[in-house]
């Protein structure tokens, strides 16, 4: 599992090495990510939770899934974050040329679970609501059934990317896959859920991703 480098604003939430694993998390994790937090403003969560918020393509809403996370045994400011396999509702089918793929797209969210239900109430605004403390700047892509492309010369079709978890930055309309050594970054915002809903961002990301996968009219991968 890769380490997630997070500041003391996160590290003060548990004693060294103690797990922060929600009761509804089913492990062991299927994948792990690393990340850095920027814009520390001193805010802390009284009831810290972390979730992967998936785009529900059918209902244009979000499907939350709890993540496990704990402090690294090596450094107090590092964390291990585990990702479980996506819920079925988090995955959707997409048409790509004559073929199709099945994927899920999401963002990692760190939040203060003020109402104790283990989920972010994205339509909520007010003192009783959860607080969204940080959201990953990058996007999470899960591939269950990969998209395929047709190489030049009549060779058999091949998958554009492997099944499993992938991570992307998306800035200025440009998609860039993160390398294994690249950390994800989290921006501390401390806002009401209704003011930080990432649904629209996830929709735009998915649209650009599918556009990049659309078959080249001249053939080739």
Describe this protein's structure.
The protein contains two helices and 17 strands. The protein is mainly β and 221 residues long. It has one domain. Strands 4, 5, 6, 9, 10, 11, 12, 15, 16 and 17 form a ten-stranded mixed beta sheet that branches. Strands 1, 2, 3, 7 and 8 form a five-stranded antiparallel beta sheet that branches. A two-stranded antiparallel sheet has the order 13-14. Strand 5 (48-56) and strand 6 form a beta hairpin. It is elongated and about 60 Å long. Mean pLDDT is 78; it is low at 1-28.
Short description:
It is built from two helices and 17 strands. The protein has about 220 residues and is mostly beta strands.
Q: Biggest sheet: strands, sense, closure?
A: 10 strands, mixed
Average residue pLDDT: 78
Proportion of residues in extended strands: 35-45%
By helix and strand content, what is the structural category?
Answer: mainly beta
Query: What is the percent of helical residues?
Result: under 10%
**H and E string:** EHEEEEEEEEEEEEEEEEH
Uncertain segments are: 1-28
Count of spatially separate domains: 1
Give me the oligomer status. Answer: single chain
Number of strands: 17
Q: Shape, please?
A: elongated
What Rg, in angstroms, do the CA atoms define? 18 Å
Number of discrete helical segments: 2
């Amino acid at each position: 599992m890769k380490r997630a480098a997070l500041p003391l604003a996160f590290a003060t939430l548990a004693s060294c090495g103690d797990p922060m694993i929600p009761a509804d998390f089913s492990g062991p994790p299927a994948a792990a990510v690393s990340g850095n937090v920027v814009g520390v403003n001193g805010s802390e969560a009284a009831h810290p939770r972390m979730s992967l918020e998936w785009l529900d393509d059918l209902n244009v809403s979000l499907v939350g899934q709890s993540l496990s996370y704990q402090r690294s045994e090596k450094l107090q400011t590092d964390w291990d974050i585990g990702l479980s396999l996506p819920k079925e509702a988090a995955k959707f089918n997409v048409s790509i040329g004559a073929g199709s793929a099945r994927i899920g797209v999401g963002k990692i969210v760190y939040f203060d679970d003020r109402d104790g239900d283990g989920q972010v109430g994205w339509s909520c605004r007010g003192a009783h609501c959860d607080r969204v403390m940080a959201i990953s700047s990058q996007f999470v892509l899960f591939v269950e059934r990969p998209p395929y492309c047709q190489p030049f010369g009549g060779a058999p079709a091949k998958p554009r990317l492997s099944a499993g978890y992938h991570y992307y930055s998306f800035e200025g309309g440009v998609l860039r896959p993160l390398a294994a050594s690249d950390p994800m970054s989290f921006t501390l915002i401390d806002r009401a859920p209704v003011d930080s809903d990432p649904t629209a961002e996830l929709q735009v990301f998915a649209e650009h991703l599918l556009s990049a996968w659309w078959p080249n009219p001249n053939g080739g991968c």
